[in-house]
């Protein structure tokens, strides 16, 4: 019997339940995957609280890695025994096994284990599109990165250095500052003690940064706009503190700024583009140019505790659930 974390009502971590589920045989275009590791992402909390609506009762989780156990009719690019990873809808990754469409699955190279894959697929593909698709960044550009010690942040820091960028990262503690710097962040700003925009202007000689990568939202949007150079780009790719209200006039006041609210799904919808982004990511990881840091491991049965830790703001790097 397989098991899955599900919720029947929205709310705090306590609404999550471990339930027995039946996993049948795959149908046309489907596969059955046995999970070896599940990615824990802040976006999971949005579904649990109802910020992202889902029909109830619902499973949870959009990222996992494991082994293909069976394939349905019409599936030719995968076979039993293949190691795979994925990120994306529908919900249900918080489980020991599941039947799902074969389309989102990405075959893993030999050099990447399933725990690493579950910790990096969503975060790594996010870092990939942020740095390789959003804006034509060039060596010498300076960017501001919020949550620089988080799972996405640590990958962005390392990848940005490979591209010749200067990274200013915001963090909450000295410990997180040291962690971000160890992964390539050039300058760290303690946002609880320092004015972020003032420090950015000081570091950049008053000019501001080319690009802001903001996964926080409501609490940081003003400082993000004030940190940009004239005609800079604000990328709001997350809403950990809530959805930011955006006044179009402020974009003009701060220097004719641009703003975008991208979603990973729109950058991996085309399988060819997804595979290109994943291929570059996997190559950096297997060659050791980007290190994936897993700082928190939880049993699948401890999903409630995992969500509490995630929302505490005390986690660093990536977190995974082990079925």
Structural write-up:
The structure is a single chain. This protein is an alpha/beta fold. It folds into two domains: 2-121 and 293-322, Medium-chain alcohol dehydrogenases, catalytic domain (Quinone Oxidoreductase, Chain A, domain 1); 135-260, Rossmann fold (3-Layer(aba) Sandwich), CATH 3.40.50.720. It is built from ten helices and 16 strands. The strands form three sheets. Strands 3, 5, 6, 7, 8, 15 and 16 form a seven-stranded mixed beta sheet that branches. A six-stranded parallel beta sheet has the order 11-10-9-12-13-14, sandwiched between helices. A three-stranded antiparallel beta sheet has the order 2-1-4, with no helix packed on it.
What are the salient characteristics of this protein?
alpha/beta, Quinone Oxidoreductase, Chain A, domain 1, single chain, 7-stranded mixed sheet, Rossmann fold, 6-stranded parallel sheet, 16 strands, 323 residues, 31% helix
Describe the structure concisely for a colleague.
Residues 11-321 form the Enoyl reductase (ER) domain. 31% of the residues lie in helices and 28% in strands.
């Amino acid at each position: 019997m397989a098991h899955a974390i599900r919720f029947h009502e929205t709310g705090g971590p306590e609404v999550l339940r471990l339930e027995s589920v039946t996993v049948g045989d795959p149908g046309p275009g489907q596969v059955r995957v046995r999970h070896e590791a599940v990615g824990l992402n802040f976006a999971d909390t949005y579904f649990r609280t109802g910020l992202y609506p889902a029909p109830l009762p619902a499973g949870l989780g959009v990222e996992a890695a494991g082994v293909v156990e069976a394939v349905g009719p019409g599936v030719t690019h995968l076979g039993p025994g293949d190691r795979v990873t994925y990120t994306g809808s529908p919900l249900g990754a918080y489980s020991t096994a599941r039947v799902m469409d074969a389309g989102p699955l990405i075959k893993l190279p030999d050099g990447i284990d399933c725990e690493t894959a579950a910790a990096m697929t969503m975060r790594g593909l996010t870092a990939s599109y942020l740095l390789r698709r959003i804006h034509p960044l060039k060596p010498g550009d300076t960017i501001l990165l919020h949550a620089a010690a988080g799972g996405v942040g640590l990958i962005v820091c390392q990848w940005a250095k490979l591209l010749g960028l200067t990274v200013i990262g915001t963090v909450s503690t000295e410990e997180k500052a040291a962690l971000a710097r160890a992964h390539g962040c050039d300058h760290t700003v303690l946002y609880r003690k320092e004015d972020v925009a003032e420090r950015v202007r000081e570091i950049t000689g008053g000019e501001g940064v080319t690009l802001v990568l903001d996964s926080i939202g409501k609490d940081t949007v003003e400082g993000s706009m004030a940190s940009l150079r004239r005609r800079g780009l604000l990328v709001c790719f997350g809403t950990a503190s809530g959805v930011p209200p955006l006044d179009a006039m402020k974009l003009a006041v701060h220097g004719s700024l641009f703003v975008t609210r991208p979603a990973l799904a729109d950058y991996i919808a085309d399988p060819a583009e997804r595979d290109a982004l994943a291929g570059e990511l996997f190559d950096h990881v297997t060659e050791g140019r980007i290190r994936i840091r897993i700082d928190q491991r939880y049993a699948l049965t401890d999903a409630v505790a995992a969500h509490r830790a995630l929302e505490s703001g005390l986690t660093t790097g990536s977190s995974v659930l082990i079925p």
